[in-house]
Amino acid sequence: MLDKFLTQRLAALDGVSVDTSTTFAQLTTLRVGGAPTLAVSCESAESAVAALRLLDQASVRYLVVGGGSNLLVADGPQDIVVVRLAFDALDVHVASGLVRAEAGVVWDDVVDTAVAVGLGGIECLSGIPGHAGAVPVQNVGAYGAEIADVLTQVYLYDTSTGEASWVPASALDLAYRYSNLKFTGRGVVLAIELHLSTDGLSAPLRFGQLTQTPGERRPVADVRAQVLALRASKGMVLDAADHDTWSAGSFFTNPIVPASLAETIQARVRDTHGEDDAARMPRHPLPAASTDAEGALATPSAPESTEPAATRANTAEPLEKLSAAWLIERAGFAKGYPGSGPATLSTKHTLALTNRGSATAADIVALAREIRSGVQDAFGVTLEPEPIWLGVSI
Ligand SMILES: Cc1cc2nc3c(=O)[nH]c(=O)nc-3n(C[C@H](O)[C@H](O)[C@H](O)COP(=O)(O)OP(=O)(O)OC[C@H]3O[C@@H](n4cnc5c(N)ncnc54)[C@H](O)[C@@H]3O)c2cc1C
Known about the structure:
Uridine Diphospho-n-acetylenolpyruvylglucosamine Reductase, domain 2; Uridine Diphospho-n-acetylenolpyruvylglucosamine Reductase, domain 3; 3 domains; 5-stranded antiparallel beta sheet; 20 strands; binds flavin-adenine dinucleotide; MurB_C_sf; FAD-bd_PCMH
């Protein structure tokens, strides 16, 4: 609980301001959610450390909010303090390829600046909304690249010690849409450091929509332009005028399932959608040792399965990553579903749940539940939400 005395101490810190009028609807790209008890804005890493330390010492619950593009917060008042990191120095060293960005830098500005000077490695991550401080949190990724490929270290405020220090990326357990900063309250990223390539070429391209020749490297600016165009066509670049972008991006992670479940699903698609469609089902076998490296397994929930998920996860059976969007479509949810109402699937991409202008968090949650149970009923796979949820559960 936040008392008046603590609010006054926070407000008195150098480089810290507080307000009680900000709402999560204003702070998030889904544009839903009630008000936190207090919003604290910090103008430097030092002021952030001082504010975070005070909050931790008082055991006050807080949430760092960057661009709010991966957050779904409940309607109504929320008993939580929002911390905003409003420092945004960006340091790009062209000769070495080292880039340091403070937490508050808009992520796409990091990409744009790096690409403009010919540094390579993050061009596929063009157009991802949010701030630099958040990119390690869920190891952002797109088009075959992820931040883990280039992240060297983060300047981390450690909640257990109240101190900030540079921590190697290897200490973050980065995996598919995961790091040990997600859901854990372990720390707050105050700055990131990347090591990019300096020869003007992209990272080796792996994604089919970007290249027909896997491993090809192309000029970074070309790849960035192509990625931005692809993303815009799917409503994955923020645009206030386009409700398809009033979303949290991909709402569900791609499920990772035992190969036998993938077989079962493909057989079901064969029955319901025919041989040709079943043959096109995206199935990406994972390397044998990747159970941990690829994050949590989707919970197998086929009616015939009585085996607990944890047991199945520990079997030596090979794993495959499936496409959540493809499964959602085959479960009967088309783009734009249900066609009208305050919350619908994006008209450009089945994986994004969107606010058409008047949605509440409850509307988004209701749609998420419907999609999730539809996929569960059709294929026995429980989709896992990708955004951080606050005050709501699926
Ligand atoms: C249109 C759209 C497209 C998207 N496309 C992609 C995509 O292609 N790939 C992808 O991976 N994601 C994508 N996302 C999701 C989102 O943009 C990323 O996860 C992004 O990194 C979130 O940044 P943010 O600053 O908005 O974080 P927020 O939403 O503000 O916060 C998300 C979580 O990170 C925590 N957090 C934020 N900053 C810090 C910090 N400095 N230190 C510690 N914790 C912190 C928050 O407390 C919260 O738990 C997309 C979202 C949208 C709306």
